[in-house]
Amino acid sequence: MPEISDHLDHGLSVLFIGFNPSLLSGETGHHYANPRNNFYRILYRAGLTPRLYDAVEDQDLLKLGYGFTNIVARPTRGIDDIARSEYAEGRIILHAKLLKYRPKIACFVGKGVYTEYSRKSKVHWGFQNDPVIPEVHEFVAPSSSGLVRMPMEEIVGIYRQLAEYIEERGE
């Protein structure tokens, strides 16, 4: 299955970084395309988007200053299908993307994504101290997967912190 295209640009407010695309994302070519994934609903409810977007509109979020990439580009059924070597390679590729595009905020969609990237074992929700690339703020948010058992209001509240930070700074 082909990789889906990143949505990257210089000067992004937020680069959302997932584990890897789902099989449905791989089939459609759109980020967070599985209807059970709550990504676009979370963004809207948290105040990060002015309306509810659909996965087929993922490229339109570039106009809002939001980009998309993954630590592993290969679509899989789940993260259990990702090899350790893919994370190692993905970590290097992601670091290069962050250096090249320098988004204001790298939002890791899931603690596991961040721990794979940063190699830090203990992380908390929200902004992280001591970012890997000092000029790029690192924000860790819950996964938007429908399999996550955290209450939706709690997830939205964490993403709302990101929206408030962006609004306060006019980014």
Describe this structure in words.
The radius of gyration is 15 Å and the shape is globular. The model has no long low-confidence stretch (mean pLDDT 94). It contains five helices and five strands, in the order βααβαβαββα. It is an alpha/beta fold and 171 residues long. The chain has a five-stranded mixed beta sheet with strand order 2-1-3-5-4, with helices on both faces. It has a single domain, classed as 3-Layer(aba) Sandwich (Uracil-DNA Glycosylase, subunit E).
Which shape, going by the Cα principal axes? globular
Number of strands: 5
Tell me the Rg in angstroms: 15 Å
Please report the number of helical segments: 5
Widest β-sheet, arrangement of strands = 2-1-3-5-4
CATH superfamily: Uracil-DNA glycosylase-like domain
Profile the largest sheet: 5 strands, mixed
Structural class: alpha/beta
Question: Roughly what percent helix?
Answer: 25-40%
The end-to-end span amounts to 36 Å
CATH 2nd-level architecture: 3-Layer(aba) Sandwich
Mean pLDDT: 94
Percent of residues in β-strands: 5-15%
Low-confidence stretches: none
The CATH class, by name, is: Alpha Beta
In CATH terms, what is the fold-level topology?
A: Uracil-DNA Glycosylase, subunit E
InterPro entries: MUG/TDG (IPR015637), Uracil-DNA_glycosylase-like (IPR005122), Uracil-DNA_glycosylase-like_sf (IPR036895)
GO molecular function, one term: hydrolase activity, acting on glycosyl bonds
Pfam family, one: UDG
Keywords: DNA damage, DNA repair, Glycosidase, Hydrolase
